[in-house]
Amino acid sequence: MVTCQRERKQEQNREIAMELLRAKLWQREQEEREKKMETFKGPKMASWGLQIRSYVLHPYKLVKDLRTEHEETNPDSVLDGALDEFIEEYLKMEA
Q: How buried is 65 (Cβ within 10 angstroms: 0-12 exposed, 13-18 middle, 19+ buried)?
């Protein structure tokens, strides 16, 4: 519901109220579109500033997944592509 009493004439107030109503409806429609897009996109992907794993190669060797707190002490195998344990831990966390 929108009301407006800015002007002295009822017709002008009605026009202003209709503009306000259109703006509110447009805003609501935009919010609904954004919600739909979020459901299609799913969780946000990693981007700048969002770190998933921490690799320490010196003075000790450790790879730590910051989402699941899973740690692996053989970073060479992880760097060679052995990510199965990290994937399993992530899937356990999501379930």
A: buried
> Helices (DSSP H) in the chain: which residue ranges?
10-41, 75-79, 84-94
Domain boundaries, the chain: 1-42, 53-94
pLDDT band at 47 (very low <50, low <70, confident <90, very high): low
pLDDT band at 12 (very low <50, low <70, confident <90, very high): confident
- The position carrying tokens 């320490």 is 56
| Cα separation, 49 vs 77, whole angstroms | 25
d(CA 69, CA 64): 6
Which tens digits make up the pLDDT trace of 73-94? 999 999 999 999 999 999 998 8
By C-alpha distance, which of 75, 76, 77 is closest to 64? 75
Specify the pTM. 0.48
Rounded to whole angstroms, the Cα distance separating 73 from 87 reads 16
